[in-house]
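>> Question from a student workshop board

For tomorrow's exercise we were told to take the sequence and the ligand below, predict the bound structure, and bring the output to class. My setup keeps failing. Could a helper post the expected result so I can at least see what it should look like? The ligand is adenosine-5'-[phenylalaninyl-phosphate].
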Amino acid sequence: MGDVMPLKEIEANLEHWEKTILGASTVQELERLKADIIGKSGVVTSAFKLLKDVPSDEKRAFGERLNVAKSRIENAITQQRRKLEDYSILEKLKNETVDVTMPVENDHFGGLHIITQSLRRIRDYYSARGFLVLDGPEVETEFYNFDALNIPKHHPARQSHDTFYLKRCGDMLLRTQTSCVQIRAMQKYGVPLRMISIGKTYRNDQLDATHSPMFHQIEGLVVDTKPITVGHLKSELRKFLEFFFETDSASLRFRPSFFPFTEPSMEFDCRYTKKDGRLIITGQGDKWIELGGAGMVHPNVFTNCGMKEKCYGFAYGLGLERIIMLKHGITDIRNLFDTDQRWLRYYGACA
Ligand code: FA5
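>> Workshop helper replied:
Here is what the output should look like for this input. Compare the format with yours to find the bug.
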């Protein structure tokens, strides 16, 4: 055990080592000191080997003194590492400061992301047609996201939405659908009402080519005291899809489905074609693709919103990313949230 430093000598050296550590000027120097003193074969670590030769009644005190030495060195290292890291961040900030008053040297100006472009285009379309364009909170209560939409507690539809609950905030959650804006709109504006809302929604879905835990939904709602029929709903949806996909005639198909807040409920599909192996919606073709859900507003929803009159209405909801992908032949939803400059430039996010 000749080359193992005795405990007394370690303790005598402690102050000197701490000073050296607190004077280290680079992270590399700090790492070297750490290895020499408390690394695998460092002087303090090696001294633990002496423990087996210490008389048993002194073992405990010996171990404690060594641990004190070790933690003094660890503390000094942590303290100096923080200092060096802060310093290097400050240096980086100093050197990487951008002078925004300097003239631009290249033509890579920023641009609007394809999601923002599409969102604005849809908003403009609806507001030109007299619809209210509304926003709602992304952090919602269970009442607006579920109860008022005729989805009582323990209803299986709650489970199917894989909700992110905000555990420490009572009954708050990240909204799973923009349908909650329907409720807020009816409470605020009553009847008659024509509104749309486009915004972020959240579900605990695994990220893959067609699913994202955060995605945008478009919600449409038309309510009146005069009769409104499924025919109105179909015509409204067709108009919107022909506008969005820039086609003269979109062939749509409605299939019976279930949503607790609409009765009857349906899902709607659109015809598509494939171009260069990619799906492109043209409204024509021999195959169908599902776009969203729709239906006639359930009477319970009107009651939950405090509507006094007899009301009629339809509602529909669809995923913004999905229709953008179908319009532009984008095969993976993850591309929309990546930061690949070439991709962004191609799809118009950069000029
Ligand atoms: C709803 O969310 C209903 N609120 C739609 C609705 C509104 C029905 C009004 C009736 C009346 P659904 O869970 O099917 O329905 O979602 C609607 C659309 O959101 C889907 O068709 C799909 O386009 C999109 N979507 C759902 N989950 C994801 C996800 N994880 N990633 C991307 N898009 C998604």
